[in-house]
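Thread: Newbie trying to understand structure tokens

Hi all, I'm a second-year student working on a class project, and my supervisor (Dr. K.) asked me to get a predicted structure for one chain before our next meeting. I've only ever worked with sequences, so writing a 3D structure as a token string is new to me. If someone could post the tokens and maybe explain what I'm looking at, I'd be very grateful. Here's the chain:
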Amino acid sequence: MRGRITLLAFVLAWRLLRLLPARAAYWIFDVAADRATARDGGAVQRLRANYGRVRPELTGAQLDDLTAKGVRAALRYYVEAFRLPSLRGSDVDRLVRWEGAMPELRGELAAGRPVVCFLGHTGNWDLAGVWCARHLGPVVTVAERLEPEEMFRAFLDYRESLGMRILPAQKGTFEQLRTQLATGEPVVMPLLADRDLSATGVEVDLCGHPARMAAGPAALAVESGYRLYPVTLRHERVGREWGMVITIHDAVATPPPGSPQAVEQVTRACAETFGRAIAQHTQDWHMMQRVFVDDLAADRRAHPEEAG
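---
Reply by user tm_fold:
Sure, no problem. This is what the structure looks like when written as tokens:
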């Protein structure tokens, strides 16, 4: 029953938010975000704790204010995701801009080589994916499975209708990504990696604290020899609307296959770049789960039956 209610709310939001003026849609979700912040549930507490590790210099009041902005940014993602099908290509181009090493990345694609991108839960990766599909070429990525299944399938179909090929995160997905790169097709492969969902993650230093991140992007880059670019996203105002900035950071140096600890070295280099970016634009990091080692260990102690 809970899954059906979730699915119904999802479908209604998807249909109705397209009919509202952008300002009204954003206002509704800002109110919802502020109420969620006031309730201070588990997700908000986790966001605050993560922000506290990233920005230890903040006072309690400053951290609370940053957390409220972060919750607004997190819900803003859903406004934009639900409204994306109603946007014209010219709207996407008006709302999205890039900075950083984009010319170099484009050069790789123009030379007929695919590129791998290390992404985190920043900004709106769906809007960025649409822009990339319009201006860079085919996009191949992975999506975490959602419950209920009907909602996951709807999200999958929706993203593919926007020009992205989506692989569900499951056993065998890494092999599919490896096979895709082996074709040599010049695709953009953005992969979320700031949270480890497997037992093969890498321990990294994130803003001065040990954390665990996914090894997939680094493993694919090391094995294939293709360039790996850390990418971060953040919101910015565009008139009365919210737009998106895609920052392409410098490609990470990739050791040759077989080098000792190559995957760990590359993942840690990505984490260093990512950490600097979220320290500067913390409110755009929508991480409401545990990623830091101390928090993961505390969770295992609190729930030993799940850890076992």
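A couple of things are worth pointing out once you decode it. Residues 88-307 form one domain. The chain has one domain: 88-307. Feel free to ask follow-ups in this thread.
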